[in-house]
Amino acid sequence: MNGISVRSVTKTFRVYNEQYQTLKERALHFGKIPFHEFNAVSDISFEAKPGSMVGILGHNGSGKSTLLKCIAGTLTPNHGKIVAHGRMAALLELGAGFHPELTGRENLYLAGSILGLRRREIQSKFDEIVDFAELEEFIDNQMKHYSSGMFTRLGFALIANIEPEILLLDEVLAVGDEAFQNKCLEQIRSFREEGVTILFVTHSVDLAASLCDELVVLDHGKVVASGDPTESAATYRRHLYAGDKTAVSANEASTEQISFPKVSLLIDGAPATVIRPGDTVTLQVETNLDHDLEDAVIAYAIREAGGELVNSSNTRILGVPGPKKSGPSTYSFTFEGLSLLNGHYSIDIGAHSLDGQRQYAQLNEAARFAMVGPSRESGISWLPVRGSVS
After folding, report:
1. pLDDT beneath 50: ranges in the chain
2. Cα separation of 335 and 34, whole Å?
């Protein structure tokens, strides 16, 4: 079974305080340059279960890329142990494994060999790789003439066609246009359906929370939160914007009267964070009443990335009886296809009285998802439309 175990990993670097300019200065200090050490990552432990997608979230300089390089084997930890089971592929940074003086074609064979592929394996998949990258016209040009987006497209296309069991991605969706990003999301979803274990490094909190099963949040090289994406993302925001009272965890958002222990998006009974327009999606909300209530209504609100309301409904409108007796209940809202355009969305969950005058609970951003489809239209909603001319 493929998976990753990171146990008490620490990576230390030396920072040299100054450089001596003359031979005399070097002689006076016996050739030694003063330095101090710092831990880029310090005592980090977590598990990536087989087939899961784990996000590593943190601000610039938090140590997330260093950690991923240790897992990939390009850096060696000073302390700790990393155990990975399965064929690993990594897209660690822009242009990694590519030589700018070589053509795209030559670089595919070079980078493929670094990943452990034989020449005939690359040759058999060559057309698929180039087609995915959409670089047919440029594949025989030197890569020093490629844009940053072209570098990333070729690198991800290679990774997408080598059938990895473990996949490491470092900010791969930060470069490239929206169409390519959606193509990557679709491929990531395919990997997950095939049981590939994925580690995804980013500083984009919304993207991480919408894609990942779990998040590991780093701050100055240390783990400050791990586990549930919503709660971990809230912790990240508190550390990023210290003192910001609007960033609260899921537990802090619930009232004493009603709580929401778990909110899930499901496709065919399995958790989903990447959704296609034609998918049948179930929003499953677990509730728990602290005491009996006679008039509780459970509601949801879908919002686009900027916070604008896309759709909202509740158990009263849908003719479903609300919770009355103390204890747990599970409510399901099933969508027979979401007519939304590509983008990132969040779902708020709330509970209020029948007349709307009393708020029993509110949990913002209880779930997140990314829509990925073939549409090239702009906006939020897909509309059936035909063009004609006369």
Report:
1. 243-255
2. 63
